[in-house]
Specification:
Layout lengths: L2 E5 L5 E5 L25 H8 L14 H21 L9 E5 L6 E4 L15 E4 L4 E3 L6 H13 L5 E5 L2 H7 L19 E4 L9 H11 L5 E4 L3 E6 L2 H24 L12 H11 L2 H18 L6
Parallel strand pairs: 8-9
Antiparallel strand pairs: 1-2, 3-4, 3-7, 4-5, 5-6, 7-10, 9-10
Length: 309
């Protein structure tokens, strides 16, 4: 449970904010209880099992920049495959990018016109902040460069950025409102996303790219582009892709909730401000986003191992 409730002397339910410290998770460690599973193990095997270290998932480390680059490109290719499975692709629209670990002014992006569900790590194109191709023999989406290039240049903390025209994201964007903290999942975006209200058509100019950067701000991880769709960022590819998936689902959830309420969003029961902030600390940071992506990554690699090529 993220929050529990007690009763004050006046009988009013008060939230008990039981939250982890940032970077720490609600996981269980080894029990001190001594047991032997009869018929399964000997006494000696039982004691050995009790002394085995507990594996706690961590961010990966790399021996060199080449290993890191391969890893990041494979994660990006997996992101495209997952996006395709979820129906987030739409013709030639949509783009995922990640900053190169060696040359931080360069980033990898999908080749223009290639179906998300067919992209391999080797298909990715390396471009600079001016949109010029450094590696690869396929052109790239100009809008991808204008949006992502501006973000990568202005936000050195952003390693990956994701933008596609997902159904619920672009539908929710027409409301011109931020997501409400109506669920635990929605709290992951509480006070960490913004609105870009000035849709001016396909993003083809550096000026609009700069306006997008200003709307995103210096700390937000996501943005709702009014009449356009969603954009998410992360310190890892994993995090950015997960935030996009989760944000689109939160858009879907709120659209359904508003449709089911006689007075729309005015009837929705939102999470208390302090509780929402606490939940955000639990499930809205970079490590949480990274961890949420791992089951999806393992699944797609098992199903479509060619993406690693």
């Amino acid at each position: 449970m993220i929050a529990f409730f007690s009763h004050s002397e006046e009988g009013v339910r008060q939230p008990i904010k039981q939250q982890r410290e940032p970077g720490k998770y609600a996981i269980f460690l080894r029990s001190k209880r001594k047991v032997v599973l009869t018929g399964t193990e000997t006494e000696e095997e039982a004691r050995a099992a009790e002394n085995e270290p507990i594996s706690i998932p961590q961010l990966p480390t790399f021996h060199d920049v080449h290993e890191q680059r391969v890893h990041m490109k494979q994660k990006l290719a997996a992101g495209f495959r997952i996006m395709a499975q979820l129906g987030y692709d739409e013709g030639v629209a949509g783009h995922l990018t990640c900053r190169d670990p060696e040359y931080e002014d360069l980033f990898w992006v999908n080749p223009f016109g290639k179906y998300f569900g067919h992209i391999k790590a080797s298909d990715l194109i390396l471009v600079d902040h001016e949109g010029k191709i450094v590696r690869g023999n396929t052109t790239v989406n100009k809008a991808a460069f204008m949006i992502h290039g501006a973000i990568h240049q202005a936000r050195p903390d952003v390693i990956c950025a994701v933008h596609t025209h997902s159904m619920y994201g672009k539908t929710f964007s027409t409301l011109g409102r931020e997501l409400l903290p109506i669920s635990q999942d929605a709290c992951a975006f509480y006070k960490s996303h913004s609105i870009y209200p000035d849709f001016g058509g396909v993003v083809y100019t550096p000026e609009e790219g700069q306006r997008l950067v200003e709307a995103l701000g210096s700390h937000n991880k996501a943005m709702i582009l009014q009449n356009h769709g969603l954009l998410t960022t992360g310190k890892t590819v994993d995090e950015a892709v997960w935030w996009f998936i989760s944000m689109d689902r939160c858009c879907e959830s709120q659209l359904i909730a508003e449709a089911a309420s006689p007075n729309g969003y005015k009837d929705l029961k939102v999470v208390d401000h302090e509780v929402a902030l606490g939940v955000h600390k639990n499930i809205g940071d970079s490590q949480a986003g990274y961890m949420q992506f791992q089951p999806m990554y393992a699944k797609i690699v098992k199903e479509q191992p060619d993406l690693l090529e």
